[in-house]
């Protein structure tokens, strides 16, 4: 199957240029590299070219410049003669602790200054560095009392608040592996993930507060705990105080449930924090793929890859330093939460937020919230946020409502806005520079759960152009390839995003007995003879600016409003609840160049004698909402005559996705019933 496209594009429109690029850490790093390596690099492009042609030298300089705390220094950065798969080790011989690097950043911070500002729709809380360290020490004590060992999994069914951060830091400080799922996720989806990794400890909220209402969580926790025989303890945070915390319904095979207060009393905390010194690839996080071809894959990320990549991105690409206030609107499930909390390692104050982005504290009743479209800009103003991250969908909503925050707010502290989750529409680029301070660096960024970081990044040395991600990240040798494996980066044509050289934040593994095979098939089978990372994004590069245009996913992953999930999760709900009515289905994400967001379209091949009527559509939506989440509900559900399949029986999601997105597709012989694609072409034309 080949995509017919061309590389023609309109001239780039520049929206921003840094008035003082040579005052940035990125420029200072460039000068450091020049001095140490006797070079004459003079631009970001020079620095990037050096970084991908000298992999070991570059990452060694990042370690030194950003200041990694390690009890034992590495003996080798990386063997550059090794292929990308199997994954080469970085910084062999070193010993360090991930949490120690976050709690004690390289540049000393005032222990009484704020480490965290936690906000909800109705509350504000400030936690100093000293207080954060003390809270982690108390949480450590509880884990030791329960018997946590190196390599044990600790799960969070938690919202984005200080206690979630504390639990993660405590777990990783002792060599545990942290994983989290947002409490708005359905029981089935949670168990699909956690059963695979077998957590011994589960932290959870008693309830969630969203959109002005409390939502009990413990009834779901009871079901989750019953489905996890490896659990030895459940610890419940009293996150929403008015909601009763009744532990009687939570039954554990071996162990018990505790309130967080009771858990902290299990053992007196030690006089000092414990930081288990571990190899650089020791796992710290497990994140989850979208479940495109079955149960979500469990992606394991290691300490040094996560830490060093985030420090590089924060300090060099984003100019985040002590005194910065970093905020990303995210849940604990999304990889951007992990990216956010690593800001501690650069000395930044984290701003955590849990709640609707369109509600704020009621002035007449502080215990509740009221609708306010400018709730997030108001938070920026209130706490002095310098770096504000969010989704492209959120920014497009502000644009559609023609909101102009700077008409009522100064936003004088704001230095950057970051957007990810889905491509940022060109019109939204222009809107942001008219509605927010024109001095900001708008960073449309791209990366993924797979690398827990960025491939395309902001740059303080480069202009911002409409519709473009500014640059390829330092050390990331990314390119656009066509289906034959030819590099078409310089042509400006659209192709698959690949990375051709090793990088430290490649996953250390996929969890489970078939993890190695899943790892290889996920990233290294698209171009098997060339050992390059195939990311699954469809992109084109601007040959003149070096910027990147994101064109969406090239696989079956769905990303409506930037929320990433797989078609298999929808298929599972249909199989469980509608097997007698639906013979087969095809779930596709549709996003054309003119669309501000992706729409999930669910095509149903009905069982004989059954009809796809309005009642069935509503029942399917309700089942998806209950079993997964409201974010999984398809925007369009319609009947179709046939589902295209390959000769070995796999659904041909990719071809239908490209048809729906307006791309011209040549069908390969691998499609067994290729004639049915004509129906989808007609559907795409009549559903503009």
From TrEMBL:
Top-level lineage group: Eukaryota
Region feature (Disordered): 1-20
Record-linked Pfam families: ACAS_N, AMP-binding, AMP-binding_C
Annotated Gene3D superfamilies: 3.30.300.30, N-terminal domain of ligase-like
Gene Ontology process terms (BP): lipid metabolic process
Keywords from the UniProt entry: ATP-binding, Ligase, Nucleotide-binding
Gene Ontology terms, MF aspect: acetoacetate-CoA ligase activity; ATP binding
Limits of the AMP-binding enzyme C-terminal domain: 572-650
Domain Acetyl-coenzyme A synthetase N-terminal: 44-101
InterPro entries in the record: Acac_CoA_synth, ACAS_N, AMP-bd_C, AMP-bd_C_sf, AMP-binding_CS, AMP-dep_synth/lig_dom, ANL_N_sf
Segments forming domain AMP-dependent synthetase/ligase: 110-498
UniProt-listed PANTHER family: ACETOACETYL-COA SYNTHETASE
Family affiliation: Belongs to the ATP-dependent AMP-binding enzyme family.
Protein's UniProt name: Acetoacetate-CoA ligase
């Amino acid at each position: 199957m080949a995509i017919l496209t061309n590389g023609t594009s309109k001239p780039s429109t520049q929206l921003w240029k840094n008035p003082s690029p040579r005052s940035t850490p990125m420029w200072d790093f460039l000068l450091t590299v020049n001095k140490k390596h006797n070079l004459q690099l003079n631009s970001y492009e020079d620095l990037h070219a050096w970084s991908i042609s000298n992999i070991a030298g570059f990452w060694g300089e990042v370690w030194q410049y950003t200041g990694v705390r390690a009890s034992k220094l590495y003996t080798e950065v990386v063997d550059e003669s090794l292929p990308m798969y199997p994954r080469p080790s970085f910084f062999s011989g070193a010993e360090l602790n991930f949490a120690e690097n976050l709690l004690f950043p390289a540049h000393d911070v005032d222990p009484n200054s704020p480490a965290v500002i936690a906000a909800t729709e109705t509350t504000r809380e400030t936690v100093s560095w000293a207080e954060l360290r003390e809270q982690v020490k108390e949480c450590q004590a509880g884990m030791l009392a329960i018997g946590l060992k190196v390599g044990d999994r600790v799960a969070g069914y938690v919202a984005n608040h200080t206690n979630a951060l504390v639990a993660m830091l405590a777990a990783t400080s002792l060599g545990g592996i942290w994983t989290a799922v947002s409490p708005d996720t359905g029981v089935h989806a949670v168990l699909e993930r956690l059963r695979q990794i077998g957590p011994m400890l589960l932290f959870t909220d008693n309830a969630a507060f969203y959109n002005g209402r409390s939502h009990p969580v413990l009834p779901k926790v009871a079901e989750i705990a019953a489905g996890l025989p490896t659990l030895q303890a459940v610890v419940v945070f009293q996150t929403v105080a008015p909601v009763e915390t009744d532990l009687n319904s939570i039954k554990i095979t071996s162990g018990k449930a505790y309130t967080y207060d009771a858990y902290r009393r299990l053992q007196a905390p030690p006089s000092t924090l414990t930081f288990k010194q571990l190899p650089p690839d020791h796992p710290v996080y497990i994140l989850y793929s979208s479940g495109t071809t079955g149960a979500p894959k469990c992606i394991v990320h290691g300490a040094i890859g996560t830490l060093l990549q985030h420090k590089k991105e924060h300090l060099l690409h984003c100019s985040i330093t002590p005194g910065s206030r970093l905020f990303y609107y995210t849940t604990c499930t999304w990889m951007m939460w992990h990216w956010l909390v690593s800001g501690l390692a650069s000395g930044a104050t984290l701003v955590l937020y849990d709640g609707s982005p369109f509600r704020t504290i009621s002035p007449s009743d502080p215990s509740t919230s009221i609708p306010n479209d400018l709730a997030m800009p108001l938070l920026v103003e209130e706490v002095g946020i310098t770096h504000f991250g969010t989704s492209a969908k959120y920014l497009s909503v502000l644009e559609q409502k023609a909101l102009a925050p700077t008409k009522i707010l100064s936003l004088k502290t704001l230095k950057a806005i970051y957007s990810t989750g889905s491509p940022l529409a060109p019109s939204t680029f222009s809107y942001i520079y008219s509605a927010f301070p024109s001095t900001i660096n708008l960073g449309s960024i791209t990366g993924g759960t797979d690398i827990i970081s960025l491939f395309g990044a902001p740059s303080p040395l480069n202009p911002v152009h409409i519709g473009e991600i500014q640059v390829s990240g330092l050390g990331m040798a990314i390119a656009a390839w066509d289906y034959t494996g030819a590099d078409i980066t310089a042509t400006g044509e659209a192709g698959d995003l690949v990375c051709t050289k090793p990088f430290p934040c490649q996953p250390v593994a996929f969890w489970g007995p078939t993890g190695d095979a899943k790892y290889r098939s996920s990233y290294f089978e698209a171009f098997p003879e060339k050992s390059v990372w195939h990311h699954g994004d469809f992109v084109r590069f601007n040959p003149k600016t070096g910027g990147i245009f994101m064109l969406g996913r090239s696989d079956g992953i769905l990303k409506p409003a930037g929320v990433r999930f797989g078609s298999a999760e929808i298929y599972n709900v249909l199989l469980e609840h509608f097997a007698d009515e639906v013979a087969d289905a095809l779930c596709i994400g549709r996003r054309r160049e003119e669309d501000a967001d992706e729409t999930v379209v669910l095509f149903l091949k009905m069982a004989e004698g059954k009809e796809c009527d309005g009642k069935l559509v509503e029942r399917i939506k309700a089942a998806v909402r209950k079993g997964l989440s409201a974010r999984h509900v398809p925007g369009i559900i319609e009947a179709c005559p046939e589902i295209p399949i390959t000769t070995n029986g796999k659904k041909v999601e990719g071809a239908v996705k490209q048809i729906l997105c307006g791309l011209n597709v040549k069908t390969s012989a691998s499609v067994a019933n290729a004639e049915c694609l004509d129906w989808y072409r007609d559907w795409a034309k009549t559903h503009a």
